[in-house]
Amino acid sequence: MSALPGVEPHLTEEEAEEVFALMLDGKVADDDIEAFLSALADRGETATEITGAARALRARLIPIEAPANAIDVCGTGGDGHHTLNVSTAVSLVVAACGVPVAKHGNRAASSKAGAADTLEALGLDMEAAGRTAEMTLREIGICFLFAANHHPAMRRIQPIRKKIGKRTIFNLMGPLSNPAHVKNQLIGIARPGYVPIYAEAMARLGTERSFIVSGDEGLDELSLSGGNEWAEVIGNDFEMHRIDASVAGLEHAPVEAIRGGDAAHNAAALRALLIGTPGPYRDAVLFNAAGALMVAGEVRTWAEGVEEAAEALDKGLAKALLDCWIDTVSKV
């Protein structure tokens, strides 16, 4: 087994890629990985370390073919707020607006219900959804790229993440390693102070246009509660912004208003959302969907994005899309 370096001094991009390659290839003992990831999280990851780690994971993924305009919408997780599944709902809404969504996600690592858990509770056969991902993305406009299916190198890492029980650099690596190689993303991260660091990593990796967002309370999505840090990444550069819900014409609401539960609870809330239930959950989804539609080039402003997303909900398009997706994969 190989030995890992200490976390001081900071690793260069090349050093980080080499270290994470060793981890992912099973050349480091589990206890050493646990200690390294915990120390790195406590110290705080740099842009070069995130970039190098993402490159190592990208080099080992199983890719899929996707439309050139496909996007991804996801959060890094690990924010500790245990909210309802906002990015999962946003994915359905945005796909219902005609933008292909290659939703990359996983089961819960440090929360009660990850995207895969909630979609499964809604009735989506995760094994069949994985087998049909390319087809459903092409024909319906959405797929779920279950991380376990596309990142086989992560299988030995997942139990270590569970044992650590808090966010690690793997939360940050996942959204940067979409198997569909999407060029446009809306990524929520759990630490507002890390938005420029993460945006730099995204810029180093290259993107067409992506937004990195974080609520001031440490929410890994755009928050209704107060302000949000927002980085717009275009190509290999980025700009920082501030935004709150009022810019999108939405009411402020505390994080507690969208507190979630287990997969069954979150699935029920999502179903209610899709049949028109108003409230903070709907507004949070509209806010984030607006950002995703802007990233996709579908709309120019936050207000336009909210309007288009609301129409997809109110006309039942997002519900119809989910029902079609569940029905399609169940027949394969």
Descriptive report:
The radius of gyration is 18 Å and the shape is globular. It has 15 helices and seven strands. Helix 4 packs across helix 13. With 332 residues, it is an alpha/beta fold. The protein has one domain: Pyrimidine Nucleoside Phosphorylase, Chain A, domain 2, CATH 3.40.1030.10. Strands 1-4-5-6-7 form a five-stranded mixed β-sheet, sandwiched between helices. A two-stranded parallel sheet has the order 2-3. It starts with 12 loop residues before the first helix and ends with a helix.
Largest sheet: 5 strands, mixed
- Cα radius of gyration in angstroms: 18 Å
- The CATH C-level name is Alpha Beta
CATH topology: Pyrimidine Nucleoside Phosphorylase, Chain A, domain 2
Which keywords apply here?
332 residues; alpha/beta; Pyrimidine Nucleoside Phosphorylase, Chain A, domain 2; 5-stranded mixed sheet; two-stranded parallel ribbon; 15 helices; globular; glycosyltransferase; Glycosyl_Trfase_fam3_N_dom_sf; aromatic amino acid biosynthesis; Anthranilate phosphoribosyltransferase
How would you briefly describe this protein structure?
The protein is 46% helix and 14% strand. It has 15 helices and seven strands.
Q: Layout of helices and strands, plus pairs?
A:
Layout: H1 13-24, H2 30-43, H3 47-58, E1 71-75, H4 86-96, E2 101-105, H5 115-122, H6 126-131, H7 133-139, E3 142-146, H8 147-150, H9 158-164, H10 169-173, E4 184-188, H11 195-205, E5 207-215, E6 227-235, E7 237-244, H12 263-274, H13 280-295, H14 302-314, H15 317-330
